[in-house]
């Protein structure tokens, strides 16, 4: 080196700058601190293993089934109880598609009683015409077997039915707890049965679809957040079960919270105590803040319906007569079948519904403190939305807070022991503190950056996550050893050309090893086997941080250290 040539500072290297920014940013996210009341504090969030608390396993109540039935018997079962009279099928014409399969069927039936347009609209079976034939009322209805089965199962079980066309027929998702025997009995009553497979087994499954499971998980998570319980992990296991960890919450409270959310529904009163379904909570687009209306002196909860919900409410109000006589047709809100709100439409709302849908609503609950409390509770129900299916707690457990604290201390001690053990082995191998300090410092910085990412994304650290951090650090030490061994040449820095060649070779090995680790962890992330998912994600984050940020900086640092040592020996 020429005497007049000033060496370039390591802190001007882009890799080092990125490393320092990432390290400082991680410390900011972790936000370590200390106070006399709480002791050492951070922004890190701890899971059940380290914080103590409770866990619950809940089962989604529902069934998937394929059934068949006689259309005429289905129609009788649907219409005769509504009109309290008998009907006689006088004709039936099927419309077939290009594959020769029946799509819709026009059925003509008569009755000595009276059938009104409102009654047929309430059934929602399809397009129809009503006429008088002598002393009889004649109805010509265009419908399909799937529509009739959907309505029949929904009316009989008082549940939502979601049909789906599959490669081997129509599969009905019944969103309530129902046994195979109950469905078989219902279908036998209308000349049908559960469809069988070729081997004679029943096409009945005690579970719900994956889409329903995921929707339930999302709504449960939102429900927890609406109750002020942030960052509670809600995990799915298969298509039937959901796991919920309540860190820092006792088992009794956890059960109450998990069992409290339920299926939210709005119905409208038709005649007497009879009601008609209007919409589910999924049609509620947004919920406002509970407020006090100075004009009428009432507490109320504002909410907004999406287009489908607004149109459904307008249709139901007109068909039931609520727009012309609102006091006789209450709007009723239910949670798990239990009434949480009931009130008639206001006169202004009834008049507006005659001409168009209403998207923004306010549910008044009263003028006193009790009215305010009811409004706040209704706000929670509305924000939670409707669980597609009810849930049943089938497993529960508790981790004592003291035990969680012990796990936390043991995790820290284990990490420190591992770090000292690594430092000892490295020193024994190289006998050079100039190599030991950068290597251990790089490992510590990786731990800080992993914890910074966890804090930034709100990831809850549990024992598998701690194991993932240790695994990532172990992998990192392997990579640092590879770099050191490739760079060292008879214990000192080799010529520049040789150094560059060897560092390139080292990073080729490191990238291959890192890719293998990520690929190996991939299935655990995708399959999501409970806590193993946390282990896999933490390991992947650690490997990514090491390869992209820490390893290049270590390569630069070891070059500087060995260069200074070589110059000092001249």
UniProtKB/TrEMBL annotation:
Residues 390-548 form the Protein export membrane protein SecD/SecF C-terminal domain. Keywords: Cell membrane, Membrane, Protein transport, Translocation, Transmembrane, Transmembrane helix, Transport. Its main location: membrane. It comes from the Archaea. Coiled coil: none annotated. The keyword Transmembrane applies. Part of the protein translocation apparatus. Forms a complex with SecF. NCBIfam families: PRK08343.1-3. This is Protein-export membrane protein SecD. It comes from Methanomethylovorans hollandica (strain DSM 15978 / NBRC 107637 / DMS1). The gene is secD.
